[in-house]
Amino acid sequence: MDKPESKAAATAKSPAGLEGVVAAESSIGDVDGINGVLIYQGYNIHDLAEHSTFEEVIYLLWHGRLPKRAELEDFRRTLSENQTLPAEVSEMIGRFPRDAEPMDSLRTAVSALGFHDSQSRDLSREGALRAAIKLTAQFPVIIATIERLRNGQEPVAPKDGLSLAANFLYMLKGEEPSEREARIMDVCLILHADHELNASTFTARVVAGTLADMYGAVTAAIAALSGPLHGGANTNVMKMLLEIEKPERAEEWLREALAQKKKVMGFGHRVYRTEDPRSTWLRKFSKEMGEARGQTQWNAILETLREVMFREKKLYPNVDYYSGSAYYLMGIPLDLFTPIFAVSRISGWTGHILEQYANNRLIRPRAEYTGPRDLSYVPIDER
Ligand SMILES: CC(C)(COP(=O)(O)OP(=O)(O)OC[C@H]1O[C@@H](n2cnc3c(N)ncnc32)[C@H](O)[C@@H]1OP(=O)(O)O)[C@@H](O)C(=O)NCCC(=O)NCCS
User: pTM for this structure?
Assistant: First the structure.
């Protein structure tokens, strides 16, 4: 039974949006919002972005240490062996409405994947790792399949020997990306892999905390990521750039948006009070891609908005600010930007779900009741 006194203690300082509330212990990742430092299992994100690969980072998140060479090779092979989608799921994707939001299609496909894993209810470390491998290997395939089928094209099978990042671009476009593009995508996946108890990861842990299976927890996390205040922001940043169109219009556009008290996508963060360390890398990629494609206007707009926003509101860009333009310049459709976030974040979600299963207690907070009490029931004809 609930204890009223413990509820009073719990809700006395309940901040809106659970700001600053510590709701879990985790060794996976940590965000230092004051100093702008992000670590995965002890390693600084800058070090990982400079030197590692997405596959190494997935291993790190799940196992708590970097793999040795033979372990990494084995891990890559296992991922590759688990890429094939069940035929029923590919067929189902083919029947989705052509204009469906890809995040909705991803959510539905992942939910259906659970039907085809007869061991999905095995929540042991071994069983859950097996599901994590399947999901992580299949996310890029699902998204590429969604993209190809909605355009009336045949899906492209993954190619042996390519990294997850290169394979993703290959399956999307039907041709192998340049080495540089593949590396940029690889680093983008590293940068988005984990971010402590963000809204979608918290969602995944809450669902896993009921001992629901991994497919259920990940399906819920996809829904949380799809919102414009979370992963949906990257698409909206690019829409904003396309609307502004010319660098000379950027300042006026922003002033008008602020005057109308609009939330400007790609700015602000619940935890960072300085530059988001991920955006340092993404800014570099966005600039590089813009120069390579002869489209420097997007970066010029981004820089003007950044300066004005800082002057006016002291807000910094977040991870979604520069990623959209980098993906756009790679020729990726706008509505796939958030699914790319998911291709990466599945590694963090599954890492947290593994951690939750390993030391589970149902997550069940309290609400501060603000409604009336002691009302008497009024028969329907007397109301
Ligand atoms: C990320 C976000 C949801 C964090 O929200 P939060 O911690 O609840 O912060 P708040 O919405 O309470 O914002 C605090 C203040 O900054 C302002 N602010 C925050 N982000 C802003 C933005 N993007 N544009 C304009 N003003 C913003 C708020 O209006 C508020 O000002 P006020 O105190 O004068 O009312 C919020 O910054 C946002 O909506 N950003 C845009 C969406 C986005 O880029 N999301 C991706 C996050 S990685």
Answer: 0.94
